[in-house]
PIHD3 protein (Xiphorhynchus elegans), 137 residues
Amino acid sequence: LQVKSENRKTIWNTEEVPEGSEFDDTWDPREEPEYEILFKQCVGTEDVFFGMSGKDPSTACCEDIVIKIKLPETKYSDITLDIQDKVLDLRTPKKKLLLHLPYPVNSKEGRARFLSEEEILEVTLRVSRKFDFINFA
């Protein structure tokens, strides 16, 4: 398969570059913090006992992604967090996390809270899939 480039000086096509790669900092010496990705769904008794909505325990039926990031010896004011549709970018003076998210998210409806006693940043993001307006109506 030969793909013609619009510009002859281009060494790769835009389709070949992974989404979010513009955030990669391979030269950055800061270490990556430990993190955990959890999926969250809203269910009621009609789901649990009767199975009326058709939801199942899979990630495809989850509405939110919760990312718990361990940030020992970090103050809330030192945290810089940038959320794009498919990428979470977190920076502190000692740690850096560039996380490609498993599903696209609505970057404007997320929320984050810092649990200072546990030294954990908890980021909750709303999953944005094409047909969620049908599935979760």
